[in-house]
Amino acid sequence: VFHKNIKDEIFRGTQEVVDGGVTYRITQPQNLGGAKLTGVELNFVKNSLDFLPGALADLGVSANYTYIHTDAEIIMADGAPRAVDQLLDQPPHLFNASLFYQHGPFESRLSYSRPGRSYQTLSTATPVEDVMYEPFNQLDLQLRLDLNDRLRLIAEGRNLLGESRDTFRPFYDEVREINQHGRGYWVGVSYR
């Protein structure tokens, strides 16, 4: 369980400015009026599933859930305070889980994460222009094999589900950007 008082947190504030009949959207760093975060983080780690037979006993699992309640305030362009319920990139709900295995020179980790909805930008002109990230699922896999005391082979797969990280404007209920990064694969060698 935690509680934090935060001073001078920086956020990306946006506003629209009309100049010569042209509307410009300006995004710039600004400071919050203040923020208080209260939350709980729950963790479970079991390094060895020793009830399983043989080499399967070297399997392990971990899971993490975090809930954060935020009470924050930004100052709008007209000087009025505005209450917000999240900091940027700080969803109220986060979940992570991993299945890992280590036996002799071989190691692997399959990791899943799901962050909840969070702000990408907060508008200091009007809340209807706020932009948020949609929740998304990410599944990653890493494999390692020690060939000797100094040489290690590494293979990784990221975003195996191929999900995009999209932004939207909640007031208009419209998608703003679809950030399709696709899957990524890496193979490498580490020497120490």
Task: Map the helices and strands.
Blueprint: E1 2-6, E2 10-19, E3 22-31, E4 34-46, E5 59-75, E6 81-84, E7 93-103, E8 106-115, E9 118-123, E10 131-133, E11 138-146, E12 151-158, E13 165-169, E14 174-179, E15 184-191
Parallel strand pairs: 2-9
Antiparallel strand pairs: 1-4, 2-3, 4-5, 5-6, 5-7, 7-8, 8-11, 9-10, 10-13, 11-12, 12-15, 13-14
Task: Produce a short descriptive summary.
With 192 residues, the chain is mainly β. It contains no helices and 15 strands. The relative contact order is 0.14.
Give the topology string: H per helix, E per strand. Answer: EEEEEEEEEEEEEEE
Shape: elongated
Largest sheet: 9 strands, antiparallel
Helix residue percentage: under 10%
Counting DSSP H or I runs of 4 or more residues, the number of helices is 0
Notes on the structure:
- The protein is 0% helix and 65% strand.
- It is mainly β and 192 residues long.
- Strands 1, 4, 5, 6, 7, 8, 11, 12 and 15 form a 9-stranded antiparallel sheet that branches. Strands 3-2-9-10-13-14 form a 6-stranded mixed sheet, with no helix packed on it.
- The mean pLDDT is 90.
Which features characterize this protein?
0% helix, 192 residues, 6-stranded mixed beta sheet, mainly beta, 9-stranded antiparallel beta sheet, single chain
